[in-house]
Amino acid sequence: MTAVASRPVTTAEETTTRPPGSTWHTVTPLLVAVLAAGGAYAVHRLFVGTPLGQAIDTAALRGGDFHHPQVSEVLTRTLDATRLASLALVCVLAAAFGVIRRRLDLALASVFVVVAANLITQQLKANLDRPLLDDFPAPNSWPSGHATAAASVAFVLVLVFPRALRGMVGLVGAGYVAIVAVATVWAEWHRPSDVIAALLIVLACGALAVFGVRLRRTGPSRRIHLPNRLVIVALAAAGALATAAGVFGMASVALSERALPDLVSGRFAFLTGTAGIVAATAVTFIVWVRLTAAEPAPLQGGTK
């Protein structure tokens, strides 16, 4: 008699085994967190720990002392809207939205991003010293609390929205964060390096939160929807232009500070700092949208 081969039995352990490549997808946020934290440290060493870096940073701060009625109104209203109570309300609503979507992991990750980023920022600002290496004595303002608050709120909104909408929410959030960041320099509350470091700190905390979410959800990364890809392309184009302008402007300001006094105006220095802020905002939101829009598929029987 011919024996009929029996069908292999698939165990529960085998069905939940991570597919090839999913391990790298899971640990990628950790690498992003390390790079972002290292970037914040490098910003501090360059723009707070060196005389030339302080001179460039301060020139951008002092160059914002000009007024245009329409621009001033937009910046003032944006700063007024960035208050602790309103930001806390947005964060609570974002966490509640995550619970409503039956994504408790996203709700907890949102709370972690906001609390960790703002706590780290306030601790650094309170405990770091600013050596007097230029002719503008001022207390330490590194990193920016306003930029941290605005970026953390924008990050959690991206995180809790459905995956297909995260790119568009990120684009709006990037615009809001950039305006807040520029406004703090314009108001002479912060130097450009303060807000750039704040963005990197929020990105590091956000990446750690995504790592926690990916530990819970098995599977490889999913394809990024076309609208999200278009947003990433738009942010990349804006970031590339701003980076080019920022590098050229910083070199010009450095030359003016060290070799050719009055080569550039204070307004030019401020616009250079603005370009650096826009570039940093674009890069951080590109990474954030990429991390959140490519989350793994849910476990069988789980929620989307």
TrEMBL record:
<keyword id="KW-1133">Transmembrane helix</keyword>
<feature type="domain" description="Phosphatidic acid phosphatase type 2/haloperoxidase">
    <location>
        <begin position="107"/>
        <end position="210"/>
    </location>
</feature>
<keyword id="KW-0812">Transmembrane</keyword>
<protein>
    <submittedName>
        <fullName>PAP2 superfamily protein</fullName>
    </submittedName>
</protein>
<feature type="transmembrane region" description="Helical">
    <location>
        <begin position="144"/>
        <end position="161"/>
    </location>
</feature>
<feature type="transmembrane region" description="Helical">
    <location>
        <begin position="81"/>
        <end position="99"/>
    </location>
</feature>
<dbReference type="InterPro" id="IPR036938">
    <property type="entry name" value="PAP2/HPO_sf"/>
</dbReference>
<feature type="region of interest" description="Disordered">
    <location>
        <begin position="1"/>
        <end position="22"/>
    </location>
</feature>
<feature type="transmembrane region" description="Helical">
    <location>
        <begin position="268"/>
        <end position="289"/>
    </location>
</feature>
<feature type="transmembrane region" description="Helical">
    <location>
        <begin position="168"/>
        <end position="189"/>
    </location>
</feature>
<dbReference type="InterPro" id="IPR000326">
    <property type="entry name" value="PAP2/HPO"/>
</dbReference>
<feature type="transmembrane region" description="Helical">
    <location>
        <begin position="195"/>
        <end position="215"/>
    </location>
</feature>
<dbReference type="Pfam" id="PF01569">
    <property type="entry name" value="PAP2"/>
</dbReference>
<feature type="transmembrane region" description="Helical">
    <location>
        <begin position="106"/>
        <end position="124"/>
    </location>
</feature>
<keyword id="KW-0472">Membrane</keyword>
<feature type="compositionally biased region" description="Polar residues">
    <location>
        <begin position="8"/>
        <end position="22"/>
    </location>
</feature>
<feature type="transmembrane region" description="Helical">
    <location>
        <begin position="227"/>
        <end position="248"/>
    </location>
</feature>
